Amino acid sequence: MKIGIITICKVNNYGAELQAFATQKRLEQMGHKAEIIDYLYYKNWQFKDTTLSQPFITINTKGKLMYWLKYRLASWAVDKILPIVNKNEKRRKQNYQSFIDCGCYSQKYISMDELYHANMDYDIYIVGSDQVWNPSASSSIEPYFLTFAPQKAPKLAYASSFGVSSIAPELSKRYTELLNNLNTIAVREQSGVELVKQLTGREAQLVVDPTLLLNKTDWNPYMKPVKGISPFNYVLVYELLPSQILLDIAVKVGKEKNIPVYCICKRAYGIKKNPDTINILDAGPAEFLWLIANATCMITNSFHGTAFSVNFATPFCCVLNRKRNNNGRMASLLCKLNLEDRILYEDKATDFNVTSVYKEVDNRVLDTLVIDSINYLKKAIGN
After folding, report:
1. Which residues contact 243 (CB under 8 A, 6 or more apart)?
2. The whole model's pTM is what?
3. Which of 162, 191, 214 is the endpoint of a domain?
């Protein structure tokens, strides 16, 4: 089968690149010819807004100005100017591109109009993971319901997300029509299962994040060592959201073990220096994978930081803030895997015990969840 995958990628984000890559590679392992449909996300400065790509929720004048400043001007400057004046950003960009080159992509589509006028010949179309169905996106999300695909072609969703727990009443009818364009639906969150049921009356399957469809052996060829860092001799930090408490815990572990603390930074500029930690400013996805796989332990508040720690059996602690709304995916995954004890809420940080980080990860439960998710793909595709 020739399969086309549309998802969010090429957005300078570890999770986005890795989930897109994993979906494509898993389908290849299943014997299919799969490629990622290279439709630029609206946050890319090269994306061309048209009448067709108007967002679901109308943006006011102030919002349009902020959109242009952030995703057209600032995005362009970060992509074109910053690598010239910032060596770390230049290396980071090169590392991202090196990883992207390992995947298989279609020709580039810079507008919704180009996508809808393309002459595609895939046997099956898949919309992938990430918040592809978030109504607050500043551009139309219709492509992520595969409305550009030929009417008779099979269409399915794998680990797609709404990014919200409810859909506004005025958008419900539109969502119902769009979801019913899909032959089968699998989502990454329980809230997504409930929304699909509410909007369509259909049963969606809950599946694992695409990055978990590949095990450590599968990922190993795509890892790239980081010069100057000794394997299994460092504490690793990856913060999706800033947390001083998380950093304090990492430093505590580092001092206990007498090893350095490295922080993977989401960007190569505007990062505060900490005398007790060492910032890694130029890591791409391949370096990100290697750093997690070879860490003594991982301290994180990121879903993908958590998921890869589990996948690679790297000792870890997931530090969460009860007031933030991004905890659900991490807590849900760890509860399913009987790893709730790896969660440390910031208001309970004084209860932290360094030895708790080093408990062995038992991946037998994860293996079962992955098999169920692969079986969904096999059944949906028809083999």
Report:
1. 301, 319, 321, 346
2. 0.93
3. 214
